[in-house]
Amino acid sequence: MITRSRFLEGSLSLLAMVLFCTSLQAVELVKVACVGDSITYGAAIQDRENRNYPVQLGQLLGDGYDVRNFGVNGATLLKNGDLPYWTRPQFKMATEFQPDIVIIKLGTNDSKPQNWKYADRYGDDLQAMITHFQTLESRPQIFVCRPVPVATDRWGITEAVVHDEVIPALNRAVRKTKGVKVIDLYKVLAPHPQLIPDGVHPNGEGAGLMADAIYKRLRRLRLN
Questions:
Q1: How many structural domains compose the chain?
Q2: Residue 14: inside a domain
Q3: Which of 36, 90, 181, 224 has the greatest count of CB atoms below 10 A from its CB?
Q4: Which residues contact 35 (CB under 8 A, 6 or more apart)?
């Protein structure tokens, strides 16, 4: 025969287990993978570790998000580029992260002559990367960023190719792909060339503008 005290003890244990499981669900974080090149990595930013755009994005989003920086200096979207993102450890790491949201910001290094000679493959490679992430078990929402402006042509990276060729190729590819949102980082930084002091890489303040634009887009997704 179960005594009242033993019944209460069992009930309290069950309640504690339910509360524990509920608390685990409550702290489950939304995982955000920032895929990109040196601009995502934060190259040339003073105090890069604390001011790259993924870190600033994480600060804006708050405690409910786990934002990771998978940027690679010099990386291309093109599989035939001189440093394809596809072959970097960060690509595998971003995949294994099983993100809920993926932000792709690639295309600046693709504008270099040795890479853009494969321009006709850019759209297919972008669609392939989108598909790769869309088919993960976590089924993430994908955001593709238009590259930031090139304030000064440098290292073979040119404003003419980025603006007149890479961005249109990106737009065409995204239009052919379902469920993908575009974030226009070109428009965000175009009025602020002074925030791109070496001509290619936004400084900490510029990275902050990028983070803010992405944050506002993710907030719209959350509200919808």
A1: 1
A2: no
A3: 36
A4: 70, 71, 85, 90, 91, 94, 102, 103, 104, 105, 106, 129
The full length of the chain comes to 224
SS (H, E, C) 41-76: HCCCCCCHHHHCHHHHHHHHHCCCEEEEEEECCCCE
Higher pLDDT, 84 or 220: 84
CATH number reported for the structural domain that contains residue 71 in this entry: 3.40.50.1110
User: Strands 101-105, 30-36: parallel, antiparallel or unpaired by DSSP?
Assistant: parallel
Q: What is the pLDDT of residue 23?
A: 42
Answer yes or no: is 217 within a domain.
Answer: yes
Angle (CA) 75-132-145 rounded to 5° is 50
CA distance 193 to 204: 13
Neighbours of 148 (CB within 10 A): 27
* Domain encompassing residue 112: 29-223
Task: Please give the pLDDT value at position 24.
Answer: 40
* Burial call 8-32: b when 16+ CB within 10 Å, e when fewer: eeeeeeeeeeeeeeeeeeeeeeebb
CA–CA distance, 196 with 186 (Å, rounded to integer): 12
Q: Which tokens is 110 given?
A: 């693709």
In a domain, 17, yes or no: no
Residue 21 included in any domain? no
With 50 as the cut, is the pLDDT of residue 42 above it?
yes
Sequence-distant (≥ 6) Cβ neighbours of residue 180 within 8 angstroms:
130, 142, 143, 144, 174
> CA-CA-CA-CA torsion for 149, 154, 159, 162, nearest 10 degrees?
-80
